[in-house]
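Hi there, hope your week has been kind to you so far. Thanks so much in advance, here it is:
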Amino acid sequence: MRLLVIEDNRQLVANLFDYFESRGHVLDVAPDGITGLHLATTQTYDVVILDWMLPRMEGPEVLRRLRSDHASEVPVIMLTARDDLPDKIAGFRAGADDYLTKPFALPELEVRLDALRVRAQGRNPRKRLQVGDLVLDLATLEAQRAGQTLHLYPACRKLLEVLMRASPAAVTRQQLEFALWGDEPPDGDLLRSHVYELRRSVDGPFARKLLHTLPRVGYRLAAQDAEATDGG
């Protein structure tokens, strides 16, 4: 499994790494809520392990934004010392798939994580995204249009995935910037440059345009578009 641990307790994180990496799992760690939200929405994980009390953004708010703002269905287990029933109810209502209180046994956590992974695979069997004749393989990260392989920089590939997951809905500039840089976007309009490169790859050689600009809003990827313009 590829796991994201959003936890600020260094000793607990070290224990999780020692146990899970020795058993062949891959872990990323975020020491605060904002970093965790950024990783959860820009990377692919089998399960997210989420603490409640976190710097910069608490666990329930991370969950709320993950579910409502980013429409993410990644399985999340809350791992917290808060064991009162109202806290458990609040965690599930925020979007948690499971809830485990500290202290806990590492083998039990592993079994719960694996159960969440298996359940999610059955719920989301898709391994690729498709809009018109444009296809993105989520396993290999290879993009093709009309059978032709598209050569994309990592930032452009990330933008493409976000736009394809949302299609045909619009994605705001703020959402795309967050997908690339979290809450610390660079100075200048670097997003426009990335969108320009993405448009050259996705639409440049083809007669029908898929990537559309929505003035003062953002962008959308769609095979049919009546209101968008094709500006940068």
Remarks:
- Residues 197 and 220 are 15 Å apart (CA to CA).
- The first helix runs from residue 10 to 22.
- Residues 226-232 have pLDDT under 50 and may be disordered.
- The longest strand covers residues 2-6.
